[in-house]
Amino acid sequence: MTRALLSVSDKTGLVPFAQKLIELGYELVSTGGTHRVLADAGLSVTSIDDVTGFPEMLDGRVKTLHPRVHAGLLARRDLPEHMAKLSEFDITPIDMVVVNLYPFKSTIQKEGVTEAEAIENIDIGGPSMLRSAAKNFAAVLPIVDPSDYDIVIEKLQEKTIDGDFRKLVAAKVFQHTAAYDALIANYLTKTEFPQSLTLPYDKFDDMRYGENPHQAAAVYKTALPETYSVLNAEILHGKQLSYNNIRDADAALRIISEFEDTTVVTVKHMNPAGIGQGDTVEAAWDNAFAADDISIFGGIVALNREVDVATAEKMHAIFLEIIIAPSFTPEAYEILAAKKNLRLLTLPFSTDVPQKLEVTSVLGGLVVQERDLLSENQADFEVVSQAQPTAEQLEAMVFAQKAVKHVKSNAIVVARQGQTLGIGAGQPNRIDSVVMSIEKASQKPGFDTAVLASDAFFPMNDSVAYAAEHGIKAIVEPGGSIKDKDSIAKADELGIVLVFSGKRHFKH
Known about the structure:
The protein is of the alpha/beta class. The protein is built from 18 helices and 21 strands.
């Protein structure tokens, strides 16, 4: 006798699959709701109660947790003593387990769900049967995914179930139960940094390649999807996003979430190329484009307002990889979709991004930290120079601080209110970033009113000196260097404003 035990929460494809098992000579054993569905479909099926000799009890919490089930699953067919023990207790071996689990994930995603409801949707018997079957995969075929039903039937019909396939489905079981348990652990865990970190992710897509063509890659989504994510954006037009597209688009979304006013962000290699604001989305685009009209070539654009025709026509005129916006007018979409390789994405924009932690891989491990969610304002600033900032300079400093936190260290941003003018990113020496940013900014209209922001303190006064000697009249930086007095003295000597924000914004 060949026996299959079926106990599924997701009934998709269940009846036709079970019918084909019967045709292949399987005796069906089932539990609760699964048994009712099969019996109502007219299939011959044995109740689990008749196998165990015990009724389901404790409101269904105990059904399959019984030696007649688990001995039937775990007995090694190649050990005579195991098979003799089954005979001694009149236990029939189980050759296939078809189980998917209580819907814990969908339960905790429901609005207003209580902890008691969540707890009742923690499956115990299902994972236990799956793990027993998967441990004994040499003899027992464990099936956890309804999408595998057809291939299983095909292989059974063709008698091509081999060791490799058995190992494949067993591994899938352990991946599934591990992710299931991780989701429960994270739901119950209130500690931000627990002793053991379990991170459930679901594969979103296989990628053509990674950062470079010789690198294989795949992308995974958090098990509980984040609404504000490029992985949840709707692709209206264009081909699959590449690894680099996703990283750059993610950077653009992080940056633009800082701003409530009408804003356009252009991104290249995960750094802002330009950030612009305006009374209209077209004016914001004009400022973002003017901030760096060279680096934007082949870049990413994020807009936090609907794209209109005027803005679409200007963006159409240059080569862009991706445009992300809350929406496009039909006319704007028609203009931009004329470019075959341009990706057009929509996503509801937000300044309140709930994902608090971020994870970065290192060789042999992960580092986990809170995202840099600090939002600064003028009340946080300390004016340390004799020269006092104007109201316009203070507003520009707040804007520049929002930008500099998203630039790779060592980071310098030269900006006026509503527009970056020059960005120096990722230089090993801070003075090099100062030079780069000022060189770019000094060629732009509005430089005479610009301020300079630094993501970290100046270790010596050379940056202050260079900035003042090249037209900068106000600087904001965290302070905290043992040589702060030298920077303050240099600012006073050269008659410029120096403000300490008190907060560092390193981004590696």
